[in-house]
Amino acid sequence: xxxxxxxxxxxxxxxxxxxxxxxxxxxxxxxxxxxxxxxxxxxxxxxxxxxxxxxxxxxxxxxxxxxxxxxxxxxxxxxxxxxxxxxxxxxxxxxxxxxxxxxxxxxxxxxxxxxxxxxxxxxxx
Amino acid sequence: xxxxxxxxxxxxxxxxxxxxxxxxxxxxxxxxxxxxxxxxxxxxxxxxxxxxxxxxxxxxxxxxxxxxxxxxxxxxxxxxxxxxxxxxxxxxxxxxxxxxxxxxxxxxxxxxxxxxxxxxxxxxxxxxxxxxxxxxxxxxxxxxxxxxxxxx
Lengths: 125, 152
What we know:
- Chain B: Its main location: membrane.
- Chain B: This is Succinate dehydrogenase hydrophobic membrane anchor subunit.
- Chain B: Its cofactor is heme.
- Chain B: Membrane-anchoring subunit of succinate dehydrogenase (SDH).
- The complex is a heterodimer.
- By secondary structure, chain A is mainly alpha-helical.
- Chain A has four helices and no strands.
- In chain A, about 75% of the residues lie in helices and about 0% in strands.
- In chain A, helix 1 packs across helix 3.
- The relative contact order of chain A is 0.11.
- Chain B has a single domain (about 20-145), classed as 3 helical TM bundles of succinate and fumarate reductases (Up-down Bundle), CATH 1.20.1300.10.
- Chain B is built from four helices and no strands.
- Chain B has helices at about 25-55, 65-70, 75-100, 105-135.
- The longest helix of chain B is centred in the first third of the chain and has 29 residues, at about 25-55.
- The termini of chain B are far apart.
- Classes of the chains: A mainly alpha, B mainly alpha.
- At the A-B interface, helix 1, helix 2, helix 3 and helix 4 of A face helix 1, helix 2, helix 3 and helix 4 of B.
């Protein structure tokens, strides 16, 4: 029975939180994409203009921001694949909760791989 | 309830339809597009991140010469063009859904979606022009900033 304490199958559970995270990550990625096309368009202005602006991406603040961006992209990608499995795989709905935790685990593994690599590039080790 | 007499109860084995519409409808096409473009974008974006942020010097190695080197190859031109179009249409369609969900007044919805479509069209057109009109060896540019294949 649904109650304020137990919630429902959806509300307050993996399904709802993955939906929330999918929206927030998608919105962030979209806003970054608009900016990223504009900064890349500077290659048509001059090599100096492009290098000047892209140089900001190599600062510590942007380097950490890139980690956040990659975290959002990887989550959105993996959760998107989970949504496709839930929609098209006959056993998808049965295993939706396991699929969610699968997304979290694969996301964590990929981030554990990426973060040290990015820090290495940032601090030139 | 009252409209349905005992004789008109639908066969329970028929498929449930939310609308009476059959065949193609735009919201269904949009739903399907999100899934198809999503799978392609996973491949395109992961490839993009791997080449630009993982290999070599990562973000530190990105400059005009790096981009020039990539876009001298039609493979990366097509890769980035697909990523541009699919990414912006997929993202724009996602934001359209978010606007429809949260913007309560029809004026606000219309305004926000107007701005959204404007931003998507401008960005797609700009990005496409940049990919196809880009010259990796602009005349009179400082040679040290150019890809190694630019002569003199």
